[in-house]
Amino acid sequence: MPRISGFLNLIKPSGPTSHDLVVRLRRLLPGLRLGHLGTLDPAAGGVLPMALGSATRLSAYAGWHPKTYRVELLLGLETTSGDLQGSMVSAALPGRVVNGNDIREVLRQFTGPIRQRPPRSSAVHVAGRRSYEWERAGFPVEPPERRVTVYEWRWLAVFPAGGGLLDPAKESAIRLAPGDRLLFEVLCSAGTYVRALARDIGRVLGIGATVSYLLRTAVGPFTLTNAIPVGRLGSDPSVAESVVLAGLLPPATIWPPDRPRLRLAPDLVKRLRQGQAVRYEESRLAAAPARAGHEPAGSGQEVLIEDGTGEAVAIGLALPGGFLRAKRILT
Questions:
Q1: Nearest to 199 by CA among 13, 330, 71
Q2: What percent of the chain shows pLDDT beyond 90?
Q3: How far apart are CA 32 and CA 131, in angstroms?
Q4: All residues at 6 or more sequence positions from 133 whose CB lies less than 8 Å from its CB, including other chains
Q5: Active site residue: 41, 83, 180, 200, which one?
Q6: Thinking of the domain 6-65+221-254, which architecture would CATH place it in?
Q7: What is the pTM of this model?
Q8: pLDDT score of 109
């Protein structure tokens, strides 16, 4: 097997767990280190980026990227899980109505930094076990609140319970009742539970809400446009290897464009690999060279290190005095 290092952006269908896809890929590519960059609920679909080979050392940087979801909320129902997989907690009485302005106002309340409590059926660790494990064992626990950020909501459509499709932008006086479904696109930070957003929005509205459809459309640079349906992997390891190599994204894909990076000459790369510190100004191939007397990164900041071909070879750590030392060696 040729050396494989990079990211494979898969499209997970509704049904299997994220771990199921990891197990499948391990069977097709035995001996290759790999892992996913963020769990998707079994009922949810969408992008599930996989880190392969030495790129697994970059998995933690997925948390720097926002995530985009297409989510449908069913009004009038709250469940234990925040989606249709859970048991009913409450249902709104017939005749309960909210209007479009109520929806817009609650979306404003749930934009920006907020605190949320993940559902009991989440994978958050509580007292040494995952929350959903406690729930399945008959001892449900409340996961601790966490601080997350919702950057933007887009209200895309309304599907009335009686059928049809409404455009909320054109229906200023829209009235909504239990059974109606609202389709949104939400951009949020890593660690945000969309099911918890649905639950909390329903409570504020006083009508209840739960997720009836969830599709993750992006994790930073990993989008539906550069994703591969998991079915294309097939069951033949040689076919899977060809598909992976054709769709492999380079390790540098995960590095945000606004974060510093340096391109170093071969002798400097060699010195970094040997554990030596180098000075920024020693490099004549810097992607964003510093002005005289200025460092391209603040002390303590991480820097992506590339070789002369543009291949990511290490994550460097900026040190006082304009020095750089390797923090993680990739190749």
A1: 71
A2: 60
A3: 30
A4: none
A5: 41
A6: 2-Layer Sandwich (3.30)
A7: 0.89
A8: 97
Tokens (6 digits) for 174 = 């829209």
Determine the Cα–Cα distance for residues 11 and 217; give it in Å rounded to an integer.
Answer: 9
Considering only 32-41, 61-70, 126-135, which range has the smallest mean pLDDT? 126-135
Q: How far is CA 163 from the centre of its chain?
A: 33
Alpha-carbon gap, residue 11 to 3, rounded angstroms: 23
Mean pLDDT of 36-54: 93
Rounded distance, CA 246 to CA 92, Å? 50
Read off the pLDDT band of 289 (50, 70, 90): very low
Residue 323: per-residue pLDDT: 85
Which of 272, 285, 286, 255 minimizes the C-alpha distance to 325? 272
Would residue 41 show up in a list of annotated catalytic residues for this protein?
Answer: yes
SS3 helix, strand, coil % of the chain, rounded to 5? Answer: 25, 35, 40
The per-residue pLDDT for range 105-122, each reduced to its tens digit, is 999 999 999 999 888 766
Structure tokens at 282: 């020693």
Q: In angstroms, how far is CA 82 from the centroid of its own chain?
A: 19
Domain boundaries along the sequence of the chain: 6-65+221-254, 67-219, 261-329
Distance CA 67, CA 216 (A): 7
- Report the chain's mean pLDDT, rounded to a whole number: 88
Question: Which CATH number is 67-219 given?
Answer: 3.30.2350.10
CATH 3.40.50.300 fits 261-329, yes or no: no
Give me the residue label for tokens 């790369």.
269
Rounded-to-integer distance, Cα 267 and Cα 160, Å: 65
Confirm whether 67-219 and 261-329 share one CATH topology: no
Reading the block at residue 269, the tokens are 């790369």
Cα angle 221, 257, 272 (rounded to 5 degrees) comes to 110
